[in-house]
Design brief:
Shape: elongated
Order of helices and strands: HHHHH
Structural class: mainly alpha
Distance between the termini: 75 Å
Mean pLDDT: 75
Number of helices: 5
Number of strands: 0
Strand content: under 5%
Length: 152
């Protein structure tokens, strides 16, 4: 492959991937008020779509037989596996994010009950005894920078 051919392939691949990335950015912007799961799905679809667009763009420049182009179906299968695994793993992230939000709200109210994966307990668990709970965030903020708030 000559230098000029290589530059042409790189330009087509980059252009194809960039077009998909821009489309994904627009979709992500429109869906910015949706759930974290929706954003993750759009992000994964955009990334995997850019790979497929680049592979198809480069294949279209080469003199390949119909059989060779069908081999690119492997890329589509890999994208399907990647997307489905991202959905499953994304649900784990969303669950952890919700548990962390609940724990943060509990800390603000002075009732920290722990969150999934924490040494102190699990979401909705009993947590530490009342005399060992941390003071609410507001009390710590009022105590001033560098000062420690005493537990109630």
């Amino acid at each position: 492959m000559s230098g000029g051919d290589l530059l042409t392939v790189v330009a087509v691949v980059a252009g194809s991937a960039l077009a998909v990335a821009l489309l994904g950015a627009l979709v992500l912007r429109r869906l910015r008020t949706r759930s974290l799961t929706t954003s993750a799905v759009v992000l994964v679809c955009t990334s995997l779509g850019a790979v497929v667009a680049g592979a198809l763009g480069s294949a279209s420049l080469m003199f390949l037989s119909g059989h060779d182009l069908r081999v690119l179906f492997v890329v589509v299968v890999a994208v399907a596996v990647g997307l489905s695994s991202a959905l499953v793993l994304g649900r784990v992230v969303v669950h952890g994010s919700r548990a962390l939000s609940l724990a943060a709200r509990g800390m603000e109210q002075g009732v920290y009950t722990g969150f999934a994966g924490s040494p102190g307990g699990r979401a909705g668990g009993a947590g530490p005894p009342a005399d060992r709970r941390q003071p609410p965030v507001r009390e710590v903020a009022r105590a001033g920078a560098g000062a420690r708030a005493e537990p109630p």
